Please model this.
Amino acid sequence: MIAAIEAAWAQGQRVAIEAPTGTGKTYAYLIAALDRQERFVVSTATRALQDQLVDRDIPALLAHQGLQRKVAVLKGRENYVCLLGLEQARSKLQGQHAGALAQVERWAQSTQGGDLSELDDISHLTSLVPHITASHDECLGQRCSHFERCFSNQARARAAQADILVINHHLFFSELRHRQMLGVGHGFVPLAQTMVMDEAHQLQAIGLKVLAKGLNVGDMRDYLQTVERETSLHARGFAPWHALLQQVQQALVQWMGAEQRLLGPADAPTDAASRTTGRQALVNLHNLLSALVAALQGVAGSAAAVAQLAGQGDVMLQALRQWAQGGGQDRVRWWDSPGYVRAGQAGDLQAHGRYAWRQGFRESPLWLWQALQALGPQVQASSWLGQGVQRWLFTSATLGDDAALTWFAQGLGLRSDSSDNSETGDAPLLASLRLRSHFDWGQQARLVVPQGLPGTDAPAAERAQALAQWLLPHLKALGGRCMVLCTSTAAMQALAQALRQGLQGQAITVLQQGEQPKRRLLQAMRTAPGGKSGRVLVGTLGLWEGVDLPGEALQLLVIDKLPFPPRHDVLHAARVQALRAAGRDAFERYVLPQTAMQLRQGVGRLIRSASDQGVVVIADERLHSRSYGAALLAALPPLPSLDDAALPAFLQTLAEKELRP
Ligand code: SF4
Model:
């Protein structure tokens, strides 16, 4: 891998390397980058890998090579406690979460880095976070009285001095967006001539999320509350604030209701009258917000916070105008609204509580390369489509199902040197390499596809009951050591409930994603004393990757259904439509490779070391009955099949092995 990276970089090529778990890819790219004797940046999809690199991998390698380098980690602003926000939180929250707030205040006195991940054992921290952090728009910058001690600023200062900087993809794309909005001279993440993108399979999803445009009504409501507080402190009596704010608040609720009515029940056509009402509600909101922003601009000199709010209001007005104008070609627009809010009465804020505010509009290009191309040429130079960075490495355990890594390359707008170039034209060239797994999957693992379960179109509860009944004897035989990956939240909840009922009186605990922080769930799995007090972890998409449970912690991996992209996902549906309109086979070219990548990620959770052994259960008979099943099986590591009937004996062997001295 080191040789491949060095060869590609020497020829000025971007390089993508698929390297399964256990190949040592982290050390390989660190060695290749260190060899160049210049600063470099590593970006990851997850903060967990950021921490692992900085706390473990990089120090270990530097010590081994006898090198001294300044290493820094930089995360998004929302990861650091904002001292100004913390100072104001007590009066804002009026007694809510007082215990947790006191813990954060004590910690803030002694922490070196101010990184909130140090605190994830505090209950209610999630509710506190919006009050004790500051987004880029909310931060007062040099006008803040805590500017010198500010943890976020200190982290940036360290990042600017670092020889090795570890960031995350979210921050990388935020940097591009920031430069696009304020000019290239206003960057806040120091990029380098060598950029390594680890967990690169996530680039497309994260990039589109950050670069998509939109406006959340919850953010608008928070904004109005802040305006109320700051104007009462700094500009009382200078404008009829109460009346202005009430009008905007009412217009916001009306607009939200109108947009929800426009959504209507799935597939129902919206009538012209509803569209007109929606349009009027949007114009009304825009005009009233405009009046409020003008009033704020009139008193902007009263305090830095008020000037900041005037600027934030302007950004919201621009977003509203954009939504009113309509989208362009190759873009998709949607009203983002939680399912349980959509199903209820439009605009019924009482019934849905704070969840009703988690909605708003989004507009996104279909593919990441389109989002990058839409950036100005100077900003684009900082991405892999431009020439501003000389050396790029993209790596992950799953980047494609062919030698050219087409699935990955096409989404990012790159042209693989061994691919058909007809569609990618003169896109930047990408060298690609697929490394083989060092694990002997044929010896270490088996694949079971259970027979006779309800079909995948059966209701989630019925499938969950049947799968739980099938699974129970195997869980008892193995004493837990199982993780179930579901394709929907409904399936996860139904299955966790069915398993809990079936395991009553057994020394096996069912853990469900979302009931505790992920870190604690995984810790519970790792520390389960095998055989005596087992664990079953049931989760959905958040656990399909980034889960490392070696040894006896995980020996039975269950996938409830083939992970096809959800039909109700607007971006997915728009991609399928666009490919069909262009005369291409959307299933072959997009749906199947996407599903294969997701399935490989899930299956990859099972074998994490050369001594691991276990069983993958894919509870979806389509793997054998449909023509595409062969392609999905071919994308997986080589897994010998096992009959349902032979499974108990295999599990028994695994269970007994652990008991042997
Ligand atoms: S500089 Fe910004 S992030 Fe830092 S304490 Fe002040 S407001 Fe908060």
In short: The first helix runs from residue 2 to 10. The pocket of iron/sulfur cluster is lined by residues 82-85, 134, 139-140, 144, 146-147, 150, 152-153 (CB under 6 Å). Confidence is low (pLDDT under 50) at residues 264-268, 340-355. The chain has 27 helices and 17 strands.
